[in-house]
């Protein structure tokens, strides 16, 4: 069994800085649980905050950041596999794994050990489903049972992929990859809703000032199509729409700001659902000074 610490929270709550400071104190290594930080070249929009990984001159090792090229569709099954490979490596270094992120399904997948499989493309099934209206696709997907990921029902492309996965799992039961056993002490950073909104708005302005639009331009110039970038949502979707002249600059900022606020709300909903399934989260007041947060966390760790 692997023992680890998990730090979660909504976007803009300061997870990375806190995780790195804790890692510096405990000889830890960071495992990113962010579905977009795996992509090279997607740095500002995903909030990698790589400067935080140096604490008082000490380099904090990190994993699952910048491991695949944009355009590739990284998924939760691959995330599980990477984590399973990284945990024994960190243990061999006599370091503590610290999982840090806000992608609820990724966190849930390791804490509750989802049973997932690598599913190849089924061209015949995709062709059969291609003319289905969205309502019919939703009904078909729900016929397979409860959904891990409610975002599967937001577009026909995601619905068809989710059906493809469900169909494959029915035919290949018993061949699933199994996550190793883990024991995790879980901390969440919590702010009042108005404060998170303020932090999101401030951070968005900082990202724009620090070159987020130029980052998206570079990705488009590197061969990614607008549709490929829009797939990654939020910053990449709205900035691409601005660059494609589908949105004005002011509309882009307003719509993106609202979308990130809504995303943060969905993150908290997911974390509350994790708690209902039995995952204990120790909530830390985000307004506390860094040293107070660290002290509170350390006091709750097993001796």
Keywords:
2 domains; 8 strands; two-stranded antiparallel ribbon; alpha/beta; 6-stranded parallel sheet; 303 residues; Rossmann fold
Descriptive overview:
With 303 residues, this protein is of the alpha/beta class. It folds into 2 domains: 2-114 and 177-299, P-loop containing nucleotide triphosphate hydrolases (Rossmann fold), CATH 3.40.50.300; 123-171. Helix content is 50%, strand content 13%. It contains 12 helices and 8 strands. The protein has helices at 15-26, 76-92, 104-111, 123-129, 134-142, 156-171, 193-209, 212-221, 226-231, 234-243, 249-276, 290-299; strands spanning 2-8, 28-32, 54-55, 58-59, 62-63, 96-101, 182-190, 281-285. The strands form 2 sheets. The protein has a 6-stranded parallel β-sheet, with helices on both faces. A two-stranded antiparallel sheet has the order 3-4. Strand 3 and strand 4 (58-59) form a beta hairpin. Helix 10 packs antiparallel against helix 11 (249-276). It starts with a strand and ends with a helix. The mean pLDDT is 92.
């Amino acid at each position: 069994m692997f023992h680890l610490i998990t730090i979660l929270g909504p976007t803009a709550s300061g997870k990375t800085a806190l995780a790195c400071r804790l890692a510096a104190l405990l000889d830890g290594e960071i495992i990113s649980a962010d579905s977009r930080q795996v992509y090279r070249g997607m740095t500002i929009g995903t909030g990698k905050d790589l400067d935080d990984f140096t604490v008082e001159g000490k380099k904090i090792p990190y994993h699952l950041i910048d491991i695949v090229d944009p355009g590739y569709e990284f998924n939760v099954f691959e995330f599980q596999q990477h984590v399973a490979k990284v945990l024994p490596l960190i243990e061999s270094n006599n370091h503590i794994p610290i999982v840090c992120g806000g992608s609820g399904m990724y966190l849930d997948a390791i804490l509750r050990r989802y049973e997932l499989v690598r599913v190849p493309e089924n061209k015949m099934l995709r062709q059969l489903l291609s003319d289905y209206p969205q309502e019919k696709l939703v009904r078909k997907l729900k016929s397979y049972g409860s959904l891990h990921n409610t975002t599967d029902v937001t577009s026909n492309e995601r619905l068809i992929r989710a059906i493809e996965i469900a169909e494959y799992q029915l035919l290949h039961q018993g061949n699933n990859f199994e996550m190793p056993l883990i024991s995790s002490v879980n901390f969440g950073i919590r702010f009042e809703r108005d404060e998170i909104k303020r932090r999101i708005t401030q951070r968005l302005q900082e990202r724009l000032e620090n070159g987020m639009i130029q980052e998206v331009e570079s990705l488009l110039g590197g061969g990614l199509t607008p549709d490929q970038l829009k797939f990654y949502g939020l910053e990449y979707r709205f900035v691409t729409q601005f660059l494609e002249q589908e949105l004005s600059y002011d509309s882009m900022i307003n719509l993106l700001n609202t979308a990130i606020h809504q995303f943060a709300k969905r993150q908290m909903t997911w974390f509350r659902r994790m708690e209902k399934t039995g995952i204990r989260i120790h909530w830390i007041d985000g307004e506390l000074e860094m040293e107070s947060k660290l002290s509170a966390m350390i006091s709750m760790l097993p001796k």
